[in-house]
Design a protein that fits this description.
By secondary structure, the chain is of the alpha+beta class. Helices cover 54% and strands 17% of the residues. The chain contains ten helices and ten strands. Helix 6 packs antiparallel against helix 7 (228-256) and helix 6 packs antiparallel against helix 9 (300-312). This is Alkylation response protein AidB-like acyl-CoA dehydrogenase. Residues 194-321 form the Acyl-CoA dehydrogenase/oxidase C-terminal domain. Pfam families: Acyl-CoA_dh_1, Acyl-CoA_dh_N.
């Protein structure tokens, strides 16, 4: 597997980065939170740019590049949930500008004549409150339901730009036409890898802001970036990000190559590494910014919160380390 971007991928990264820098700036993020600006126009732009066309597993690296840049920009749209959670569970469903979400557990399916009745409540569903369609995983299979057919309540979370909701299905009837033939175990690695790359983008944004700050902040007649302790913390942040990025793109490569045997473990490795990365970057980033890092007026908060929120979704670093151990232990036995 080639572990470096080729010329086309570098061009794609630069193109996406330019669009995100222009259209999804910290000022726009602040306007969404403070001023109630609707990010729907930004979502439509992503569709117009063709960013929602990466639904094939073979496109996972290119999709990953978009996700990392959107993590850097603290994207307020339903792109992450739609592309990495809904789309892998709904093959054959054209997105056509619609937002999607996924429910992985908490819902039961009871047979009813020629269909099923879905019942239950699921918590912490990314973009569940604004999804047009929701992929619901049950023991009887995976079903696609309309967002209008479920009850949702948005849950306040650490990241004010992130939509997380409680989703309730009460007697929702589905037929064979709503059932999709997909293995959720092979769809989950896409979601985990997407979250990992989003967190890495947010961590990179934190490091970029820290480096700019320590180069300009003067203390004792010198830039604080010249102090050895500050250099060590910045270097530790850089190493953690590069390590997490390498694992995340390795996971993306295994998915793109159709390596079902290794992609599950690789995705857990990526999510665990990204979680450990954000912990270090969060701590050092706040310390190097001093008291300003805690303030609402400082844009650092958006990147920090997006990285931390990503750690809390779909299992943290400790949980995925345990899964990796169980998988390797089972192989050894």
């Amino acid at each position: 597997m080639l572990m470096e971007f080729d010329s086309d991928q570098r061009l794609w990264r630069d193109t996406v980065r330019d669009v995100v820098a222009k259209e999804c700036s910290p000022a726009f993020a602040r306007a969404v939170v403070d001023g109630g600006v609707d990010p729907d126009a930004l979502w439509k732009l992503y569709n117009k740019q063709g960013w929602t066309e990466f639904t094939d597993r073979a496109d996972m690296v290119e999709l990953g590049i978009v996700l990392e840049e959107l993590g850097r920009g603290t994207d307020p749209t339903p792109y992450l949930a739609t592309m990495t959670q809904f789309a892998p569970l709904a093959p054959g469903y054209a997105l056509d500008g619609a937002a999607g979400a996924a429910v992985y557990s908490g819902i039961s399916a009871r047979p009813d004549n020629d269909g099923w009745i879905l019942q239950g409540t699921a918590s912490h569903i990314l973009d569940g409150d604004r999804a047009d369609r929701i992929a619901v995983v049950t023991a009887a299979g995976t079903f696609i339901v309309r967002g209008a057919d479920v009850m949702t309540t948005r849950t306040p979370v650490f990241d004010p730009l992130l939509h997380v909701a409680e989703v309730s299905l009460s007697g929702v009837r589905v037929t064979r036409e709503n059932r999709v033939d997909v293995d959720p175990a092979l769809a989950l690695p896409v979601a985990l890898t997407g979250l990992a790359l989003t967190m890495i983008g947010a961590c990179q944004r934190t490091l970029d802001m820290v480096l700019d700050h320590v180069k300009n902040r003067q203390q004792f007649g010198a830039a604080i970036g010249s102090f050895q302790a500050v250099k060590h913390k910045a270097a530790d942040m850089h190493v953690a990000i590069e390590r997490a990025r390498a694992l995340a793109y390795y996971a993306a490569l295994t998915i793109a190559a159709g390596d079902d045997e290794h992609c599950v473990v690789a995705a857990s490795m990526a999510k665990a590494s990204a979680g450990e990365c954000q912990s270090l970057v969060f701590r050092h980033g706040l310390q190097l910014f001093g008291a300003m890092g805690f303030t609402w007026e400082n844009d650092l908060q958006f990147a920090l919160k997006r990285a931390k929120a990503g750690e809390l979704l779909l299992g943290g670093a400790a949980e995925h380390r345990a899964k990796i151990f169980e998988e390797r232990h089972a192989v050894d036995i």
